[in-house]
Amino acid sequence: TGKVRTRVRQPQTSFPGSFRDDLEAFRGWGATADPLDDAARPKALRSQTIISYLSALHTAADAAVRSGVPVAEMTSVAVLAEPDVYRRILRQMLADLGNTPSVHTAATVVLILARDWLRLPPERIAELKALKAKLPKLRPGLTQKNRELLTAFEDKALLARFLELGDVLWKEAQSTSLPRNQRLVRAQMALLVGILQITPLRRKNICAVQFGRDITWPNGPNGPALIQVPIEEHKTEFDYVGELPLELSRRLHHYRTRLAPAITGSTPTHLFVRSDGRPKGQESVTNRLVFVMNKRLGLHMTAHQFRHLVGKIMLDDSPGAYEAVAQL
User: By three-state DSSP, how is residue 63 classified?
Assistant: First the structure.
């Protein structure tokens, strides 16, 4: 609980080439499935899961080096699964980050590495599990910062401003007195806020949205738009399809066919583009959203936290509807 502490990791290039080769081999193993090969995975991991696993292994390796393991000795990812090194990693991460999900995630991924990829003997796996079991238990439920955010929205006036924010930003984006780039950015933020209030997608998915692929108008420009995320791009077992409200759908169509082309000189393929028409990166989009939420509502609120707030709004309206929130 409390504010999460972070630190900059050593770049992967500081580790021996053989260690980096192991990470790439692990990436390939995770992305390949062969149910008839005992050394392969029966089912491939999703790309986002692989990225998460590799990041956790990088974090574990960084902690090992900071705990005193010479970087020159990090010649293989198998070093992470040596009991003494594993103990050092957990102790160092607890000291750096406190008892946070990041520590437990790294501990779990090293276990997965040891069991499923390195295929270490059962007695070694049991030893690692015993060390992981000594980690303090995580407090269930929301983190402190998320609880504080949701408590702030008990203020009905603040909640009303949040729900009206998309309308306010969209109206401002229509003003020709604003510089062209500011009009483009405000239109994008209006659409982003509107989409996240209805379909609280993960930031990776929403920032990569493309017209024609992820946003379509099956009943024409005057009908509701659909927003879709294919199964291979998110964590669930199903394709995601959501219908957007009519007003938001019309704004998206206006943005794509009139507002954005008038500023960029071309019809955008992506929802989030720069003034020259090039797609924006995820960090650019999410940082701008945090800035807008802080400026307009006085709150530090990320794209991910829309998911928590939407859940609260649903439960306030329908107490006990936990399964509906989980499904969304």
Answer: helix
Decide: helix, strand or coil at residue 165: helix
Side-chain half-sphere exposure of 115, counting CA atoms within 13 A = 13
In terms of DSSP H, where are the helices of 73-209?
A: 83-97, 101-112, 122-132, 144-152, 156-173, 180-198, 203-207
DSSP 233: G
Strand 226-229 versus strand 240-243 pairing type: antiparallel
pLDDT tens digit sequence for 109-147: 999 999 999 999 999 999 999 999 999 988 777 778 888
Question: Bridge-partner residues for 226, per DSSP?
Answer: 216, 243
| Contact present, 85 and 113 (Cβ < 8 Å) | no
292: left (phi > 0), else alpha (psi -120 to 50), else beta? alpha
Q: Which residues sit opposite 210 in a β-bridge?
A: 270
Task: Report which residue type is found at 250.
Answer: R
**DSSP secondary structure string, 11-29?**
PGGGS-HHHHHHHHHHHHH
- Residue 271 CA to residue 274 CA, distance in Å, equals 10
End-to-end CA distance of the chain: 26
CA neighbor of 251 nearest in space, from 194, 206, 316, 207: 194
Place of tokens 């009303």: 160
> Could you report the per-residue pLDDT of 261-293, keeping only the tens digit for each?
999 999 999 999 999 999 999 999 999 999 999
Mean pLDDT over each residue of the chain, to the nearest integer: 91
Strands of the 215-216 sheet, one edge to the other:
215-216, 226-229, 240-243
- Separation of alpha carbons 108 and 244, rounded Å: 38
The model carries a pTM of: 0.68
**CB-count burial class (<10 Å; 0-12, 13-18, 19+) for 12:** middle
